């Protein structure tokens, strides 16, 4: 297995990064390190008002969600009801997983991209031309729940965490359906999200001696419908908004949510998946905790017929089975929206 970033940084004192981690700069990264401070404008969705508010509050929240998906592809969810203690426990257990010995992790190391438990470094070390400053653990947690045997307690806490976040996604998907002018249960029914794929991803970004030369994750969009992200107190997520990279600074006890490629396809391009990346820093280890929430693996995802009208709104994407898309995206280098480009008409 390729050396993890954690081992690289802990085994000796590093003054510079190995050449394999130096990211070639391209014009889209010109403002690297000069991100605009406009995080206060990132839309916020109050989950309590959306799900338990009055009819008027729900309608207003759905309208906020529509604008967030349309103009940003990204929003922050507050008042979601998941206890902070559960989130912290999950973050700590992920850190403990990365601390396990190589022998304890070997069963999961660099497995096939559709294996239920997989850990490794970079994005896909077998194909990455440059390595990213990131180690990861990816677990399929729905419709079948998997979990590593160690550390102790991981299984129980992950089960609870994933159940709670899936409930939030279910409610958000209903609201997104309505915001697109579809039946409330349209996404649930057409993409069989009751048996939808949920993947829990833990990302570890150890301190990096030359953060301006490396990236934790390259610019990319996510597969699936909605990705929920939380992190320890260290920031690093950036989103591309109106052609500029901006820091996505989390509000306390919130989830950052991004629109995934399959939402873009289903909405026939009305809601675009958002490009994002992770930057690293010299001083602190960052851990981010992601749940990727998608259709059923066997669902064929295509634009909703109601959003297609041959003259004004022709279909913009071919249908493709989610399993095939996922395998394609995860097996190749992660690069912008290159996977989505393959299904664009
Ligand atoms: O750690 C982050 O901020 C980004 C993680 C991410 O984009 C992903 O896991 O897909
Ligand atoms: Fe992502």
UniProtKB/TrEMBL annotation:
- Family label: Belongs to the iron/ascorbate-dependent oxidoreductase family.
Coiled coil spans? none
- Official protein name in the record: Fe2OG dioxygenase domain-containing protein
Q: Which domain of life is it from?
A: Eukaryota
Q: Give the taxonomic lineage as stored in the record.
A: Eukaryota, Viridiplantae, Streptophyta, Embryophyta, Tracheophyta
PROSITE patterns xref list? FE2OG_OXY
Q: Indicate whether Transmembrane appears among the record's keywords.
A: no
Tagged with keyword RNA-binding: no
| Domain Fe2OG dioxygenase stretches | 195-295
GO molecular function annotations of the record:
metal ion binding; oxidoreductase activity
InterPro entries in the cross-refs: DIOX_N, IPNS-like_FE2OG_OXY, IPNS-like_sf, Oxoglu/Fe-dep_dioxygenase_dom, Plant_2OG-oxidoreductases
Keywords per UniProt: Iron, Metal-binding, Oxidoreductase
Q: Which residues cross the membrane?
A: none
Q: Give the source species.
A: Papaver atlanticum
């Amino acid at each position: 297995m390729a050396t993890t970033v954690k081992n690289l940084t802990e085994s000796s004192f590093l003054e510079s990064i190995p050449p394999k981690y130096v990211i070639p700069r391209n014009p889209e990264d010109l403002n690297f390190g000069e991100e605009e401070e406009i995080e206060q404008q990132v839309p916020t969705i109050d989950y309590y008002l959306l799900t338990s508010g009055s009819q008027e509050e729900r309608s207003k929240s759905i309208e906020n969600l529509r604008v967030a998906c349309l103009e940003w592809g990204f929003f922050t969810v507050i008042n979601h009801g998941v206890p902070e203690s559960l989130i912290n426990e999950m973050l700590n257990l992920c850190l403990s997983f990365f601390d396990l010995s190589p022998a304890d992790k070997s069963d999961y190391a660099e497995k096939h991209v559709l294996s239920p438990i997989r850990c490794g470094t970079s994005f896909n070390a077998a194909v990455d031309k440059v390595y990213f400053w990131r180690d990861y653990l990816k677990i399929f947690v729905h419709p079948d729940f998997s979990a590593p045997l160690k550390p102790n307690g991981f299984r129980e806490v992950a089960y609870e965490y994933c159940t709670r976040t899936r409930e939030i996604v279910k409610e958000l998907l209903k609201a997104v359906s309505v915001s697109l002018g579809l039946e409330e249960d349209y996404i649930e029914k057409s993409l069989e999200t009751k048996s939808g794929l949920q993947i829990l991803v833990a990302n570890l970004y150890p301190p990096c001696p030359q953060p301006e030369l490396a990236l934790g994750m390259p610019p990319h969009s996510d597969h699936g419908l909605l990705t929920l992200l939380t992190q320890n107190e260290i920031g690093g997520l950036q989103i591309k908004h109106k052609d500029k990279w901006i820091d996505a600074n989390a509000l306390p006890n919130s989830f950052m949510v991004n629109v995934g490629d399959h939402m873009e396809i289903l909405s026939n391009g009305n809601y675009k998946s958002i490009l994002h990346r992770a930057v690293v820093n010299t001083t602190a280890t960052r851990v981010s905790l992601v749940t990727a929430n998608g259709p059923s693996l066997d669902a064929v995802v295509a634009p909703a017929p109601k959003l297609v009208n041959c003259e004004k709104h022709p279909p913009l994407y071919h249908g493709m089975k989610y399993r095939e898309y996922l395998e394609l995206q995860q097996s190749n280098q992660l690069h912008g929206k290159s996977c989505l480009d393959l299904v664009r008409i």
